[in-house]
Amino acid sequence: MSAFETAEYRERVQRVNANMEAAGIDTLVVLSQAHMSYLTGYEGDSDYVPQVTIVRAGDVDAIVILREMDLYCAYPTVYLDESRIESYPEDHIGTPERSPWDVIGRRIAEIAGGGRIGVEFSASNFSYADHQALVRVLGDRPLVDGSRVVTKARTRKSAAELSYMRQAGKIVDRALMNGIDRIAEGVRQCDVAAQITHDLIAGTPECGGGPHRPVTMPTGPGVAQAPHLKWTDAPYRVGDQTDFETGAFVHRYCCALSRTAIVGPPSARLLHVHNAVMDGFHGGFDAVRPGATCGDVHRAFMKAFGPHGVRKESRIGYSIGLDWPDLCFSMQDDDETILETDFTFHLIIGIWEREDAYVFSETLRVGETGAESLSSMPRELFIR
Question: What residue ranges define each of the domains in the chain, with the CATH number in brackets?
Answer without folding.
Answer: 6-153 (3.40.350.10), 159-383 (3.90.230.10)
